[in-house]
Amino acid sequence: MTRKRELFAFGAPSATASRRQALLASAVGLLLLAGGAAASDKKYAPGVTDAEIVMGQTMPYSGPVSFASANGVGDMAFLKMLNEQGGINGRKLKLISLDDGYVPPKALEQTRKLVEQDNVAFIYSSLGTGPISATAKYLTDRKVPHLLFNAGTDKFYSSEFPTLVPYFPRYAFQAEVLTRWILKEKPDAKIVCLYQNDDFGRNFVDGLKRVLGAKAGNVIKEVSFEVRDPSVDSQVISLAETKADIIMVASVPARPVSQAIRKAADLGWKPVFLLMPVTNSVETVLRAGGLENAVGAISAAWMKDPSDPGLQNDPDVKAWNAWMDKYIPGADKRNNSYHFPYLKGWMLKNILERAGNDLSRENLLKVANTMPKMSLPLLLDGITIEGTPELRTMRIIRFNGTTWVPISDPITATQ
Predict the structure, then answer these.
(1) Tell me, what DSSP letter sits at residue 127?
(2) Alpha carbon of 161 to those of 19, 70, 123, 143: distances in Å?
(3) How far is CA 17 from CA 24, 271, 383, in A?
(4) Under a CB-based contact definition with an 8 Å cutoff, are residues 170 and 236 in contact?
(5) Could you tell me if 110 and 98 are in contact, meaning their C-beta atoms sit under 8 angstroms apart?
(6) If DSSP codes are grouped into helix, strand and coil, which group holds residue 335?
(7) How many CB atoms lie within 10 A of CB 50?
(8) Which of 31, 248, 325, 331 has the most neighbouring CB atoms within 10 Å?
């Protein structure tokens, strides 16, 4: 037996052995080919390895909009949760989040650092009309994706900036939905506008008048303010002189909205307040202006409000509260800037999972712009996304002195 083994091992092979060796060689060849194919299937952007995906963003951790930096804190917390669950396709997620102070030139400087020094794969959900305006061309020229960016200015949604992928409902859509309520419920109302003096504010005013169409003349006065203005009292006094029926307040910071609500009440002026979804928080906006002064205010929503006492047994809200308690303990849950990271975090997870091993910038953009139809945690019933992640459906809500109450079915914007 020993001799036969030696012969089999070292002597001339038998016919059976030859066939076995041929099969073995064939199998090895197939394995090598398969391994080569698998390796060639891996396409990585800068910042991507077999173990990690590095992304970057800028946030207003300082400055007049620092309350919104909760978006960045929430983004980090959501990625921490995903990493504890094993990451995405075996890769851990790393987010480099830098302060831009809501100053456009600083946002560009920090974004350049993220791309050219930190070598991030893509920018993830930087925030603000001004900062994104400053970085959009830079990122487009270098074909760097900006996934799920946090602004709704119309120009970011055009073919001019193909590497920008939205999730936030564009301001024109929000303005359209709110204006459709006016046309249905108060078609002859006199309207005034208090707006932030940048693309954010102007988009809402322009959208309002565009949808009003032949009734655009119902907008009888428009007054702007600067983000860094300490008060909007003088603007509200000017608008109150018109005795208008509706005032649209287009603001990112909460303070001007609260000031406008309180000042109007002080003047004895009781218009219907039309508020933007980003600044309609009961606890951080309306309470500061006086809840009683905000009764009857109108806004739009696409997400459940986890601070609503009536929703505390809702499964999505319970899951969000558990996430907050574990990953951002002690945070002010009334700040609605913590809602958005949770919602869009699920979108990012879906994009990266479907991208698989092709994490090239080109494929990330392709996958992000071909989302399957889906609902997501915290979305209101009846609201879904499909195609791009951009949210296009909202419901009209009215403030009753305690909470926001839906007063319409889901409305899909058409503009």
Answers:
(1) B
(2) 60, 26, 14, 10
(3) 10, 94, 65
(4) no
(5) yes
(6) coil
(7) 10
(8) 248
Residues forming a β-bridge with 48 = 53
Give alpha helix (H) positions in 121-228: 129-141, 171-185, 199-212
Contact 83, 122 (CB under 8 A): no
**46 SS3 class:** coil
Asked whether the beta carbons of 195 and 224 are under 8 A apart, the reply is: yes
pLDDT of 40 reads 53
Predicted pLDDT of residue 13: 36
Length of the chain in terms of residues written: 415
Predicted pLDDT of residue 153: 82
Please check whether residue 367 is in contact with residue 355, taking contact to mean a CB–CB distance below 8 angstroms: yes
Please provide residue 225's backbone torsions phi and psi, each rounded to the nearest 5 degrees: -145, 160
Shared-domain flag, residues 131 and 198: no
Same domain, 59 and 118: yes
What long-range pairs does 40-44 form, CB within 8 A, spacing at least 24?
Answer: 41/356, 41/357, 41/358, 42/357, 42/358, 43/357, 43/358, 43/359, 43/360, 43/363, 44/121, 44/359, 44/360
141 and 199 housed in the same domain = no
Distances (CA, A) of 198 to 92, 125, 207, 274, 391: 38, 20, 14, 19, 23
pTM over 0.90: no
Find the helix or strand (DSSP H, E) in which 298 lies: strand 298-301
Residue ranges in the chain whose pLDDT is less than 70: 1-40, 415
Q: Which domain holds residue 137?
A: 40-169+309-379
Alpha helices by DSSP H, listed for 42-189, are 70-84, 104-116, 129-141, 171-185
Domain identity same for 208 and 130: no
**CATH at residue 361:** 3.40.50.2300
User: Residue 339: which H helix or E strand, with range?
Assistant: helix 339-355
- Round to whole Å and give the CA distance between 145 and 118: 15
3-state secondary structure of 48: strand
What are the angstrom distances between the C-alpha of 253 and each of 49, 195, 332, 337, 383?
Answer: 39, 11, 17, 11, 26
